[in-house]
Amino acid sequence: MSGKPTTTPPVSRGVSKKVHIADTPITLRNWHQHIDWLNVILIIGIPLYGIIQAFWVPLQLKTAIWAISYYFFTGLGITAGYHRLWSHSSYSATLPLRIWLAAAGGGAVEGSARWWSRLHRAHHRYTDTDQDPYSVNKGLFYSHFGWMLIKQNPKRIGRTDISDLNEDPVVVWQHRHYLLVVAVMGLAVPMAGAGLWGDWWGGFVYAGILRIFFVQQATFCINSLAHWLGEQPFDDRNSPRDHAITALATLGEGYHNFHHEFPSDYRNAIEWYQYDPTKWMIWVWKQMGLAYDLKVFRANEIEKGRVQQMQKKLDQRRARLDWGVPINALPVLEWEEYLELARSRALVAVAGVVHDVTEFVEEHPGGRAMITAAIGKDATAMFNGGVYYHSNAAHNLLSMMRVGVIRGGCEVEVLKRAQKEG
Ligand SMILES: [Zn+2]
Ligand SMILES: [Zn+2]
């Protein structure tokens, strides 16, 4: 800095005016500039190398068990650490557990906890919009990992507050030394583990590279599959969905409709029989004194959400049916007018509403005589139990025949008024 005052505002210096490559259309000439080559190598290139290696490197049983265990260990680093602890603060963790989770999550090779959580908070805040870093509205492939393979304009992603993460020394350390964490936890530890029985190379290929590939693909499903497959029991305005298959693939993150509604609940599955190993682990850590302040939404609030969504679906079904002419759209008749009209048509008044039963007289299940006895009268009492207590279906059928309403409600009211008036 020269310290010399400048009259040119920083925004007009050209650098920030430059159009980001992500904001230009992909053409045959510039497509290679749109690709994030580093991520392509990390997410596709290295796994391909591992698959090719697997043809030459025999898989030992001990190494297979070690690779699967390490898969769960690093997967939980993402789901219990990156996701439920750092993105959502759904529980608190002691320092040893935070170090453990930062190490495990780093071994999954999905970026630092700070970077991951910032994007995930934007995903929750701006779900399905252009500011959602992995909006499923841009396609299933995009939400899975396309968003990392094609360059994004970082300015497009919605703003979020991560001041709490900047105050966590474990998160800050992991972010600063991320490449070291990846080298140690992503490759060195899985190699050394299998090295205990002399299978260093098998450890590198299976517990290292291929395990990274599987854990990445599994956790990417939280952004793709969980927004595409299943039910929406709590809210259907956005894309998150609940499905057991997604839960199996993502260490329990499959009840994503619930999760988007109650993101700071440490659970994803609320029923005991649903698969949520991440929740079970957090609970075990609590028993061990490593985790505390596990947040749970009240069952009453959860049930409210479920009932409101059911009501919404029910209202939509109801709206598809014909319920007869709405009462407030019917013409208003004087009692005398009704009596006059009933001379030429089979009109019956029930509860202040006039019904034209002309075509129904012959079909009346109670017989012709019963219904004709009500023509030109106030049949409210007869209909509602005086003669016969009609069924729900009969009430619905009657409402399809309504043609008018009587001023004042019913006969009695009209007579009372007539008496008063003299
Ligand atoms: Zn989501
Ligand atoms: Zn989340």
UniProtKB/TrEMBL annotation:
Needed co-factor(s): Fe(2+)
Any Pfam family: Cyt-b5
Matches recorded under SMART domains: Cyt-b5
Gene Ontology CC entries for this record: endoplasmic reticulum membrane
Keywords: Electron transport, Fatty acid biosynthesis, Fatty acid metabolism, Heme, Iron, Lipid biosynthesis, Lipid metabolism, Membrane, Metal-binding, Oxidoreductase, Transmembrane, Transmembrane helix, Transport
Gene Ontology annotations of biological process type: unsaturated fatty acid biosynthetic process
Compartments, as annotated in UniProt: Membrane
Top-level class of the enzyme under EC nomenclature: oxidoreductase
Keyword Lipid metabolism (UniProt): yes
Protein name listed in UniProt: Acyl-CoA desaturase
Enzyme Commission no: 1.14.19.1
Membrane topology: Multi-pass membrane protein
Residues annotated as domain Cytochrome b5 heme-binding: 348-407
Function field: Stearoyl-CoA desaturase that utilizes O(2) and electrons from reduced cytochrome b5 to introduce the first double bond into saturated fatty acyl-CoA substrates.
Organism, scientific name: Aspergillus saccharolyticus JOP 1030-1
InterPro entries named among the record's database cross-references: Acyl-CoA_deSatase_haem/ster-bd, Acyl-CoA_DS, Cyt_B5-like_heme/steroid-bd, Cyt_B5-like_heme/steroid_sf, Cyt_B5_heme-BS, FA_desaturase_dom, FADS-1_CS
Family: Belongs to the fatty acid desaturase type 1 family.
Cofactor note: Expected to bind 2 Fe(2+) ions per subunit.
Substrates-to-products reaction catalysed: octadecanoyl-CoA + 2 Fe(II)-[cytochrome b5] + O2 + 2 H(+) = (9Z)-octadecenoyl-CoA + 2 Fe(III)-[cytochrome b5] + 2 H2O
